[in-house]
User: Fold this.
Amino acid sequence: MKNTGISEENFGQRDRRGHWKPFEKIEYAPLFVWPIKPVKLIKWIFGFPGYLYPWNIIYFLFSLVVWWIFLPPLETMKTFEPGWMLQILIRNAGLMAIWFGAFHLHLYVKKRQGKEFKYNPSWLETDGSAFLFRSQIKDNLTWCFASGLPIWSGYEILTFWMMANGYIPHLNFSENPVLFIVMLLLIPMIREFHFYCIHRLIHWPPLYRTVHKVHHANSNPGPWSGLSMHPVEHLIYFSSIFIHWIIPSHPIHVINQLLHAGLSPGPDHTGFDKIVIEGKGAIDTHCFAHYLHHKYFEVNYSDGIFPFDKWFGTFHDGTAEADKQMNKRLKRKAIRLNS
Assistant:
C-alpha cells in the first residue's frame, strides 16, 4: 500500500488468522438513551460522521440530481409507455454501475489500499461452489443486474404511475414545507425500521434456506454483495417504498427512499472499515456491525439507529465478551431445538 498517512494499527488489530477488527466497540445512536443527552444527540445528527454526514447527505444529493434532471414529468408517467420506463431502468443501471463499481474498482481491482482496514484477509472467491459460475463477483453482478435492478426500477415505475394518476397522495413543498422536510429527514429511519423487520423475517428457516442464503453466501462480502439477493428478497427489501403509497409524499421522497435502499448496500458491504483517500485521510464505512452479521449470521440484524438487537438479545459489539455471549445464546438455542 502507498503511504497515505493513516495506518490500520492505529485503529485496530489483527488476530492470528489475519482478521482485523477496530479497537472501538460498536455503539448505537444516542436516540434511546435516558436521560437524554442533547449535546451528544445534536453531534450525532449534524456531526461528521453522523446521521446526516456523509452518507445520507450523499444519497440526498443524488436524489436531488435525479429528480431535477433524470425524472420524466409526472404527466408523462400517467400511462405505461416503454420510453419513460426504459429511461428509469437505464438511469438506475448507470447509478448502480457507477456507485458500486467505484468501490469495487478502488478496493478490489486497483487495490489502492491493499488489505489495510479489510476485516477478512481473503479476497473475493474465484472458485466457490456457493456462487453462480463459481465466481463471487460474477454471481453478485448477475443477481444485482438481473434481479435487483428490474425490481428496484419496477417499484419506482409503479409508484410514479400511481402518483401521476392520483391513486396515492401527493405532497407539494409549497403546501406543507414542514411535512416535506420531516419526511425527508425520516427516510433513513424508516428504511432501517423496515430493514430490521424484513431481515428477521427472511432469517426464518424456510425463507432463509430458499431465499436469504443467496445473500449470505457472501460471508466475506464485497461492494457488489450488497444487492446480491434472490428475487423474492429483492421484492421484500425494496417494499419499503410502500410507505409512500400511504403517507403524502413528493417525488423526491420516492427517489430518495429507493436510492437509499439501492445504493447504501455498496459501502455497507465493502468489507473495509475505512476507505483511505491518499493524502486526505479516510472515510468510515460504518459496516463492521453488518460485517459481523455476515460472519456470524445471527447477530446485528439492524444497522445502528434503532437498538433492536440490544432489546432482543442479538447485539454483537465486536468484542471478545460479545463472542462469549453469542456462543452461550446459540448453545441455549441448540438445546431448545434438540429437546
About this structure: The longest strand covers residues 274-277. The chain has twelve helices and four strands. Residues 8-338 form one domain. The radius of gyration is 21 Å.
